[in-house]
Amino acid sequence: MAQMYQNNHRQQPFRGGRSPSLQPPATPSVPVKFYLDAEKTQLNPTLLNVDAEKQADQLHQKINSAQIRRFFGEIKNLSLRLQQGRPWTQIEPLFRMLRSKAAYASGTSKITSEFSTFISENVDRVKDQRDFEAFVLYFEAMLGFAYGKGLVKK
């Protein structure tokens, strides 16, 4: 009887969201270096033009503008809190949580796998407040290129 249940159970069709095997493989985000120096005083000059445009070009599918605004708005909000004097130690956990939010949005097909990878890899790339400040600028520049190239659904 148990064998019959196991056989019937294995033959059940997949019933939730997109099947993981049907999702396109995620393209790695553009490898970037936020700063030229170890002291993090010289922003990498290619970050906000060449690298940001390359990253926008990797967004092969159009992204829903509401979702991209949601992520960018949250990052800008965290940046504003820093500018208002909140310590990085209070902001960092909320910033790190963006990885799980991107994974969830990707799993429910609200954002593309490329955009989810962009968020996840850059959250991992940010090591301190200075990196975060550079990432905010990078994200803004990438977003400008994405809108300019028509890669954002309105």
Radius of gyration, in Å, reads: 19 Å
Topology order in helix (H) and strand (E) letters: HHEHHHHHE
Alpha carbon gap, first and last residue: 54 Å
Our count of domains comes out at 1
Order of strands, main sheet, comes to 1-2
Helical run tally: 7
| Largest sheet report | 2 strands, parallel
Q: What's the shape?
A: globular
What is the residue-mean pLDDT, rounded to a whole number?
A: 85
Secondary structural class: mainly alpha
- Specify the helix fraction band: 55-70%
* Overall number of strands: 2
Unreliable stretches: 1-23
- Measured by DSSP, the beta-strand proportion falls in under 5%
What does this protein structure show overall?
The chain is mainly alpha-helical. The protein has one domain. It has a two-stranded parallel sheet with strand order 1-2. α2 packs across α7, α3 runs antiparallel to α4 and α3 runs antiparallel to α7. The longest helix has 20 residues. The protein is globular. It starts with a helix and ends with a strand. The N terminus is likely disordered.
